[in-house]
C-alpha cells in the first residue's frame, strides 16, 4: 500500500466569474482600451461630472446664495489680469458671482436636465417602440405616424412650444423646480422618437423568434414577454443613442436658457451664464461668456466622442 495519500478529485466546475471580471473580459472593454480618444473623452467626462457633483465642497462661493454676493465685486477680470482679485480665479459676472463657482453649479443644472431628459425620452420611446413592434397592426401604425409627424419639427421648436404653453398657463406661479421639470419634459418629448423607431425595428425581428413563441405557449402575458424577454435583446443600441442624446439634451437646454426660456438668472445653467455674458461681450468683459461657453463645448464634445465610440463598439458589423 502506498504511503502517500491519494489525490482528491478536482471539482467538475469552476466558480462563476463576477460581473466585474466578465466586464473586463468583454469585447467592449477591449475596444475601449484600444481607443485613446474614447479613454480621453471618458476621463474628461468623469472629471466634469465629479466637479459638478462635488461643487458645494470645492467651489469658492455659492452663487445661488444672495448673501454671498457683493455688487462691488461685479465684472472683475480673471485673476491673472491686472485688475483681478482673489479668490475670483476666472473673474466675476454682473452680479458679483464667481465665474468658476457659477460654472461648477451650472454644470450640475445642465447635467441634471440633460440626464433626466434622456431618461424620460428613453422610457417613453422604449415603451412606445415595444408596444408598436410587438402589437403591430393599427396600434403600430398610429404610434409610428405620430413619430413621423414629430420628426418634421425641430427638437428646439417642440421644447420652446411646450415651455411657452406651461409658462402662459402658470405665469407667476413658476418656481425653479417647476422650470427644471418643464425643461426635462420638453427635452424628453423632443427625443423619444429615436428610441421608439430603433426599438420597434428590433422588436419586429425578435417577436417571431422561438423564445417568444415559447413564452406565448406557456401562457406568459404580453407585457411579461416584452419586458422580461424581448427588451433585454433590443436594449443594446439604445445605450449608444442615449449617450449621444445626453450631449444633444445639454445643448438643447443651453439653447433654451440662452433664449430666455430655460433656467432663471438666480439659478443659472451653462446656457444662462452664456446669455448673461453675451450682454457684456462687446464691452470688454469677455470672460463672463467665454469660460462657461468653453466648458459647454468641452462637455458636449467629450460626451459625443464617447457616444460615437459606443455606437461603433455595439455595431456587430464592425466586430
From TrEMBL:
Q: Which SUPFAM superfamilies match?
A: MetI-like (SSF161098)
- Residue stretches spanning the membrane: 37-58, 111-135, 142-162, 174-193, 230-251, 286-307
User: Which keywords, in A-to-Z order, does the entry hold?
Assistant: Cell membrane, Membrane, Transmembrane, Transmembrane helix, Transport
Key word Lipoprotein present: no
Q: How does it sit in the membrane?
A: Multi-pass membrane protein
Pfam families hit by this protein: BPD_transp_1 (PF00528), OppC_N (PF12911)
Q: Cite the ABC transmembrane type-1 domain residue spans from the record.
A: 107-307
Q: Which GO terms describe its cellular component?
A: plasma membrane
Per the record, the major location class is membrane
- Keyword tRNA processing listed: no
**InterPro entries per record:** BP-dependent_transpt_permease, MetI-like, MetI-like_sf, OppC_N
In the record, biological process GO terms are: transmembrane transport
As for subcellular location, the record says:
Cell membrane
**What PANTHER family does its record include?**
ABC TRANSPORTER PERMEASE PROTEIN, OLIGOPEPTIDE TRANSPORT SYSTEM PERMEASE PROTEIN APPC
Regarding protein family, the annotation reads: Belongs to the binding-protein-dependent transport system permease family.
Q: What is this protein called?
A: Peptide/nickel transport system permease protein
Which organism's genome codes for this protein?
A: Enterovirga rhinocerotis
Amino acid at each position: 500500500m502506498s504511503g502517500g495519500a491519494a489525490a482528491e478529485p478536482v471539482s467538475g466546475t469552476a466558480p462563476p466569474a463576477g460581473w466585474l471580471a466578465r466586464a473586463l473580459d468583454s469585447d467592449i472593454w477591449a475596444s475601449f482600451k484600444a481607443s485613446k480618444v474614447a479613454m480621453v473623452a471618458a476621463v474628461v467626462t468623469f472629471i466634469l461630472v465629479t466637479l459638478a457633483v462635488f461643487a458645494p465642497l470645492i467651489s469658492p462661493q455659492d452663487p445661488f446664495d444672495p448673501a454671498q454676493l457683493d455688487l462691488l465685486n461685479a465684472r472683475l477680470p480673471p485673476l491673472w489680469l491686472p485688475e483681478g482679485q482673489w479668490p475670483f480665479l476666472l473673474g466675476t459676472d454682473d452680479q458679483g458671482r464667481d465665474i468658476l463657482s457659477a460654472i461648477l453649479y451650472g454644470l450640475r443644472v445642465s447635467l441634471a436636465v440633460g440626464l433626466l431628459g434622456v431618461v424620460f425620452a428613453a422610457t417613453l420611446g422604449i415603451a412606445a417602440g415595444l408596444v408598436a413592434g410587438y402589437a403591430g397592426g393599427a396600434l403600430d401604425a398610429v404610434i409610428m405616424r405620430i413619430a413621423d409627424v414629430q420628426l418634421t419639427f425641430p427638437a428646439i421648436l417642440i421644447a420652446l412650444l411646450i415651455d411657452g404653453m406651461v409658462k402662459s398657463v402658470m405665469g407667476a406661479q413658476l418656481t425653479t423646480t417647476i422650470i427644471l421639470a418643464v425643461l426635462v419634459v420638453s427635452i424628453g418629448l423632443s427625443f423619444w422618437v429615436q428610441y421608439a423607431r430603433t426599438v420597434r425595428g428590433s422588436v419586429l425581428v425578435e417577436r417571431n423568434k422561438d423564445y417568444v413563441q415559447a413564452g406565448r405557449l406557456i401562457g406568459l402575458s404580453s407585457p411579461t414577454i416584452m419586458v422580461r424577454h424581448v427588451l433585454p435583446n433590443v436594449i443594446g443600441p439604445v445605450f449608444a443613442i442615449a449617450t449621444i442624446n445626453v450631449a444633444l439634451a445639454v445643448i438643447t437646454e443651453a439653447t433654451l436658457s440662452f433664449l430666455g426660456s430655460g433656467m432663471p438668472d438666480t439659478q443659472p445653467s451653462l446656457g444662462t451664464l452664456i446669455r448673461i455674458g453675451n450682454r457684456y461681450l462687446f464691452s470688454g468683459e469677455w470672460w463672463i461668456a467665454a469660460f462657461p461657453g468653453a466648458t459647454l463645448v468641452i462637455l458636449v464634445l467629450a460626451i459625443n466622442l464617447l457616444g460615437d465610440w459606443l455606437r461603433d463598439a455595439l455595431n456587430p458589423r464592425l466586430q
